[in-house]
Amino acid sequence: MVEKNRATLGGRLSAVLVAAGSAVGLGNIWRFPYIAGENGGGAFLIIYIGCILLLGIPVLLSEFAIGRHTHKNSVGAYRSLSKPWTPLGYNSVISSLLILGFYFVVSGWTLEYFTTSVSGAIAEFTSSAVNAEKFTAFTTNPLRPIICTILFALLTHIVIALGVQKGIERSSKLLMPVLFVMLIVLAVRSIMMPNGVDGLRFFFSPDFSKVTGKTFLDAMGQAFFSLSIGLGCMITYSSYFNDRTNLQKTAYNVIALDTLVAVLSGMVIFPAVFSVGIEPTAGPSLVFVTLPSIFNTMTFGPLWSALFFLLLILAALTSTISLHEVLTAYLHEERNLSRTKAAWVVTIVTTLLACASSLSLGAWSDFRICGLNLFDSLDFVTANILLPLGGFFTSIFAGWVLNRSILRDEVSDHGSMKCRLFGLLVMLLRYVCPALLLWIFLYNLGLFRL
Ligand code: TRP
Questions:
Q1: What average pLDDT does the segment 119-143 reach?
Q2: How far is the CA of 19 from the centre of ligand 1 (A)?
Q3: 12-38 in b/e burial notation, b at 16+ Cβ within 10 A?
Q4: pLDDT at 10 (0 to 100)
């Protein structure tokens, strides 16, 4: 079944690194701390980990099994397993396109903040009010954020153009460990700041009085976004795994790394936030508005700032690569475009969309879709609609439609998995995941509120 010239990845370490590279991104370092901050810190962390265990493991394992069994892109994979389920593959193509439409923009901002740090201009970010003003002035500017967005898209293109094996594997091998070490260094530095311990207390001691139905909703959405699941992204990546890859170990390692990076990010951000007396509920602007002034209270501030934003660039890049690859693999394998041509088409189309969504924060802010500007609606449609929908159908497909022996064969790497665990996996896929996801979906539509 494997196409002759199709690339495969090296050993298990590479599989873990590329999949973790996709999972670890702005979702962990930028999104997780602000969502956790809005939801009371410690209590959110516990619920989030519950979602990772109940939803993350089964859906990730299913995507791995589908990808490695078929060795195809997400559309080809569903088509070859069951024709009526092909639209689920298209959901992954559309969602990846739409996610890149805003992910490239935020990634571009990390480039801007990195250069601001390197040039030393970050020293002018003296208070959160000034920072908010500078952030808004930058993001609403018609030119600068677009240049950053285009640069980031080109950076992604270069890695993709180098090919699956050379590009993705090599860059992940290098970037992931660097990212990890940097986070640990920054966490240690942040905890040593005055009152840093208060931030740790906020993050690790649960305050259940702040928990509402929305906390569960946010935790579930964050778990999906962070693990890159529900969109067939992991199907595309696992289609490059070879038969020696241990799917369960890979999945557990990816989940452990992804969760660890999220927790480490919390340990970088919350102590610092509490040290300079900023509200942890500041929202999406937390990283971009708050951190520069925190870095400025530190000796060698611009250096720490440059390190942090370099880290964000690397994390974002390994995620944009994975989203780009979903689209490139689809065009190359299903539409018969050469890989080079496919990659260019994807880069150009996603960049145009990203430029439009960047402009929607400033010059084009009058253009609204259901009351939201383009940037916010891309975010809303993917995270609140397409992700839960994709996750819902993926678990139904894997639990009810996919031939049981295929699932078992792949997940157990041809027979090594205990029966009881496999039974648990099937039960989660058949009943628990669809029920939980249906709830998220109805809740998002405002039809079923706790
Ligand atoms: N998981 C990445 C992050 O945390 C984002 C991402 C990459 C993603 N590929 C995906 C999200 C596929 C959903 C689906 O930043």
A1: 90
A2: 10
A3: bebbbbbbbbbbbbbbbbbbbbbbbbb
A4: 64
d(CA 157, CA 343): 7
Closest residue to atom 9 of ligand 1, CA basis:
228
Is 323 near ligand 1, meaning CB less than 6 Å away?
Answer: yes
The pTM for the full model equals 0.92
Residue 322 Cβ inside 6 Å of ligand 1? The answer reads yes
Rounded Cα distance, 326 and 160, in Å: 11
Q: Which DSSP string do the residues of 254-292 spell out, in sequence order?
A: HHHHHHHHHHHHHHHHHHHHHHTT--TT--TTIIIIIHH
Q: How many whole angstroms from 229 Cα to the centroid of ligand 1? A: 7
Atom index in ligand 1 nearest the CA of residue 229 equals 14
Q: How far is the CA of 29 from the centre of ligand 1 (A)?
A: 12
**Cα dihedral 256/259/261/265 (nearest 10):** -160
pLDDT category, 448, cuts 50, 70, 90? Answer: low
Q: Whose CA is nearest to atom 14 of ligand 1?
A: 228
Residue 448's contacts (CB-CB under 8 Å, 6 or more residues apart) are: 439, 442
To the nearest whole percent, how much of the chain has pLDDT over 70?
93
Q: Average pLDDT, whole number, for the chain?
A: 88
The answer, yes or no, to whether residue 309 has pLDDT greater than 50, is yes
* CA nearest neighbour of 21 among 307, 320, 297, 304: 320
Domains of the chain: 12-444 (1.10.4160)
Average pLDDT of 126-152? 92
